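Reading group handout, session on sequence-to-structure problems. Before we discuss, look at one worked example. The prompt was deliberately terse, the way you'd type it at a terminal:

> structure Phosphatase PAP2 family protein

The input record follows.
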Amino acid sequence: MNVKVINNYSKLKPSLFYLPISLLAAITLFLHHKDALHTDKYVQIQKDVFFFINYNLGQYPDIIYNLTQLGDASIILSILSIFILYAPKMWESLMSASLVSLVFSVGLKNILRVPRPAVMFDNNCFVIIGKKAVGFASLPSGHSITVFTTFTVLLFAFMPEKPPHKILWVLFTIITGLTIAFTRVGVGAHYPLDVIIGSIVGYISGLAGIFISRKYSIWAWVNNKKYYPIFILSLLACFMSLISQVIDKNLIILYFVLICVIFPIYKMAYAFIKR
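And the output record:
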């Protein structure tokens, strides 16, 4: 599996950045044309679409609230922790990509400072699921960045060889990613463009992580069993955090993540002892 990931990553070209950068440029031009490069107009041009998506997704609160948890980095990375054992090269890229996405997310939120829907609209006019998101960190959606950063690394790591399979894999990954990302509108935490822009930024972050790990061996130690205790301790910390969240939220997705964490902890502990 790791050989396949290495081979797939070696085929990637920098030209893959052209599309997402072009999309961001197109969105910027659209906002400029609508005179929506300032906060109030940015929110107003999305108001009707936000209410429409929020209302329709809000009809399925349990599903939406479970799915939106996958935008939490600790949760989605915990699910993928098994690949530390079987595809460490993917994890090298994922670690680099996560750092890039963190810089983008924190930096852009602090620069743009767009107020969240709960700040701009009457809270009785739209659906809020879970804890109400407030403040001025709406653009871009951090959850969307996390989802597409992770999915981009996965997309290219396990890209099939045959064109028909490749098309299906790309469509499946994008549709799944957007479905999870748009739950942020469903829970009332973000506007649609926050999610779209966040998804594009996540894609760029994922690509950046792949190219960084391909050029520099920053995380080569991931494949060394003597460092497994670092991951074991990290996963145990995630496990305890998940237990706390299960008690607090009692969501099905959290039980699934708990199961996903237990197996790699056991496998890494066994491999470390037997090394």
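Points for discussion. First: The chain has two domains: 2-220, 224-275. Second: The chain has a mean pLDDT of 95.
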